[in-house]
Amino acid sequence: MSGLRDHSWVRPGTSGLWVAPAGCWIDPHDPVERALVTHGHGDHARGGHQEVFATPETLAIMALRYGAARDTIAVRYGDTVELAGGVSATFLPAGHVLGSAQILLRYAGERVIVTGDYKRRADPTCAPFVPAACDVLITEATFGLPVFIHPPIEEEIARLLETRARNPDRCILVGAYALGKAQRLIAELRRAGYGEAIYLHGALVQMCRLYEEQGVALGPLALVMDATKEALKGQIVLCPPGALNDRWARRLPDPITALASGWMRVRQRARQRNVELPLVISDHADWTELTQTIAEVDPAETWITHGREDGLLRWCELQQRPARALALAGMFDEDD
Predict the structure, then answer these.
(1) Is 165 exposed, middle or buried (0-12, 13-18, 19+ CB in 10 A)?
(2) pLDDT at residue 1, rounded to an integer
(3) What's the rounded Cα separation, in Å, for the pair 318 and 333?
(4) What residues of the chain score a pLDDT lower than 70?
(5) Could you please report the per-residue DSSP string of 204-238?
(6) Which residues contact 140 (CB under 8 A, 6 or more apart)?
């Protein structure tokens, strides 16, 4: 759209978003010499980088998943680091998962914010999103269509607990992404007054422990493998989404399959995954939050990536806001 300037010092490259004067990449999908990482999900954080700038929590997550990088620079929220070529970077909370950050880049009087993934709703497991003024806002658009309006999480947790109460001889098996979603579900269940042990698939244990080491209280947790089939009746069990219909689930007492994801707004996706109880719970901004953020930050330009770019581009056009789509390689939809 007209009115766009050439901010060529930040641009898409072969490995992600390239910051030319600083000689670094943001969320590169290939091993690089210098990387700035917004958060620990696999489509943003990869192993093999020589030098990594990230929040202390994200560095801990990356070390758990990929092993420690050769050189790591921990940047706390609100802190600014000076990079090469006159570029500085300030890390601000993104509200997506533990340690997730927006990266505010400054160069030659311009301010560019790379949001990474973010949400605007309260989450007891991570710091809330902080809006900041900028010339260019680079925003995700995972749920960048008007159909994606996420309900209050309290309503979805209530549905989960009501289903459990109606089925005392069955367990509720909830698929939840290992980083962020599982811990948020646990914390929201605690906030709703659920004090019983929550049972975990073994693949979720290490990340839950890391969250607790970082000060996020999760309450009593137990391993499915340590419980009898009889003991699991009436219990809530969390597993990675890929394990919902796995052989592992056969040890459970007539499980009601649930999946916590923003994609559960789409009924066809729920049917494809054989989900009996779709829970519309997302760690990404929905349509309202995306448009709210653009309006609140009020950038001179909006760059859109990682999702449904056309819908948000059209909204910007109708609002007379200069915008463009970035075709960043290596991005994919999470189970969210």
Answers:
(1) exposed
(2) 43
(3) 27
(4) 1-6, 328-335
(5) GHHHHHHHHHTT-----EEEGGGS-TTTTTT-EEE
(6) 115, 116, 117, 118, 284, 285, 304, 305, 306, 307
pLDDT, one tens digit per residue, over 20-51 is 999 999 999 999 999 999 999 988 999 999 99
Q: Hunting for tokens 């658009």 — which residue is that?
A: 141
User: Would you state the pLDDT for residue 2?
Assistant: 45
Q: Is residue 110 part of a domain?
A: yes
Q: Can you give the residue range of the structural domain that contains 200?
A: 153-279
Say if residue 193 is exposed, middle or buried (CB neighbours under 10 Å; 0-12, 13-18, 19+).
Answer: exposed
| Distance (Å, whole) CA 26 – CA 118 | 15
> In whole angstroms, what is the distance from residue 330 CA to residue 167 CA?
42
Q: Do 19 and 138 reside in the same domain of the chain?
A: yes
Backbone angles phi, psi at 277, to 5 degrees: -125, 90
Give the pLDDT of residue 7.
72
| Count of domains forming the chain | 2
Per-residue model confidence (pLDDT) at position 92 = 98
The reply to whether 120 and 170 lie within a common domain is no
